[in-house]
Automatic annotation (TrEMBL):
One Gene Ontology cellular component: voltage-gated potassium channel complex
Pfam families attached to this UniProt entry: LRR_1, LRR_8
TM annotation in the entry: 254-282
Annotated localization: Cell membrane
Keywords recorded for this protein, A-Z: Cell membrane, Disulfide bond, Ion channel, Ion transport, Leucine-rich repeat, Membrane, Repeat, Signal, Transmembrane, Transmembrane helix, Transport
InterPro entries: KCNMA1_auxiliary, Leu-rich_rpt, Leu-rich_rpt_typical-subtyp, LRR_dom_sf, LRRNT
Protein name per Swiss-Prot or TrEMBL: LRRNT domain-containing protein
Domain LRRNT: 33-66
Region entry Disordered, spans: 292-324
Signal sequence, renumbered to the chain: 1-26
Mode of membrane association: Single-pass membrane protein
Molecular function GO terms recorded: potassium channel activator activity; transmembrane transporter binding; voltage-gated potassium channel activity
Organism: Etheostoma spectabile
Length: 324
């Protein structure tokens, strides 16, 4: 659409056209042409796969709806160039050399439904990376051998996400809190990662156990650690972890039991000792009372000795008569 200025009867219109043309030519990202080594069709598909590109193509048509830049060696997605493509629906960046995606990379791609970042060298995914992709339906991010960290809220705003594939990366744990909240999610690929099957990843294992149908290649979704769990399926260890992680007691629990045990023991000892003391005191009291009674008796018997000796005598008589 190179607009060669033509003699025209409408000078105003010509000026406007000239200005527009100048704007298109001077801005490196605004273009209606087709990038070098790419094929553009009238369906707004730009195909640049396998062209040994090392940089993101320039001169992309503004209205591009599908961009395929797979099988190149592109190291970076420049936010500025990418965000002019606000009609982009489909973006395939697989098999390149992307190591990093910044928070602004996809800042303006609100119509993007398909994104493929597989076969790159990504290391981590930050919080806001996919945040602006409100229409994202399918995200493929497999085969990034160094990808070991995905922020817990990385997909929190992708309410339309249906398919997420993070197979064959280097992931050990994933916080599933925001994932299980995604209303449309129906397929998740987790296989080929060295998953941790310890309590820090208990929720993920339990999720695979409960909703096995959601997980592609569930048979290859296995534990990488600890050593005694290696190779076991996440879905298989889910319940086991659930029991294991909630039965084990923390050091505070043990301390509690020790303290409670000691308190019970001490209370028992003290009450036994108290009982002993009370018994001894009671006995002494009783004895004292008896002695007092005896003394009183003695006193009274001293007064009436004669009657007592008589009765003694009588008793003796009674005894002898009884024995005989
Ligand atoms: C990646 O792209 C290269 C060409 O750049 C190609 O030879 C290779 O087969 C591709 N790998 C995959 C897994 O598609
Ligand atoms: C995968 O992560 C582990 C640490 O969790 C690291 O030691 C290893 O080098 C990583 N592998 C790759 C290919 O980056
Ligand atoms: C998981 O992420 C949520 C927020 O999405 C956070 O509230 C929670 O504490 C995280 N859980 C762990 C174990 O880090």
């Amino acid at each position: 659409m190179r607009l060669a200025p033509q003699p025209s009867a409408q000078p105003l219109r010509l000026t406007v056209l000239l200005l527009l043309t100048a704007g298109v030519i001077t801005s490196p990202v605004l273009s209606s042409g087709c990038p070098d080594r790419c094929v553009c069709d009238d369906q707004l598909v730009v195909q640049c796969a396998g062209q040994h590109l090392t940089t993101f193509p320039v001169n992309l048509p503004l209205a591009t709806r599908q961009l395929i830049i797979s099988n190149n060696r592109i190291v970076e997605l420049p936010p500025l160039a990418l965000n002019y493509l606000s009609d982009l629906v489909y973006l395939d960046c697989s098999n390149n050399s992307l190591t990093e995606i910044s928070e602004s990379t996809f800042g303006n791609l609100r119509k993007l439904a398909y994104l493929d970042l597989s076969f790159n060298t990504l290391i981590r995914i930050e919080d806001r990376t996919f945040g602006p992709l409100a229409s994202l339906v399918m995200l493929r991010m497999t085969d990034n051998p160094g990808l070991s960290e995905i922020h817990q809220d990385a997909f929190a705003e992708n309410a339309n996400l249906q398919v997420l594939d993070v197979s064959r990366n280097n992931l050990t744990v994933v916080n599933i809190t925001s994932l299980i909240a995604l209303p449309a999610l129906r397929s998740v690929g987790l296989s080929g990662n060295p998953w941790s099957c310890e309590c820090d990843n208990e929720d993920l294992c339990l999720w695979v156990h409960l909703e096995g149908f959601k997980f592609q290649d569930e048979g290859q979704t296995v534990c990488g650690s600890p050593a005694d769990m290696q190779g076991r399926r996440l879905g298989e260890v889910g319940i086991q972890l659930r029991t294991l992680c909630h039965q084990t007691l923390g050091s505070w629990d043990y301390l509690f039991f020790v303290v409670i045990g000691f308190v019970i023991f001490a209370a028992g000892t003290v009450s036994a000792w108290l009982m002993g003391v009370i018994m001894v005191l009671y006995e002494r009291y009783i004895k004292k009372k008896d002695e007092q009674l005896d003394d009183d008796e003695e006193e009274s018997s001293e007064m009436g000795r004669t009657s007592r000796s008589r009765s003694d005598h009588g008793n003796g008589n009674l005894k002898t008569s009884h024995t005989v």
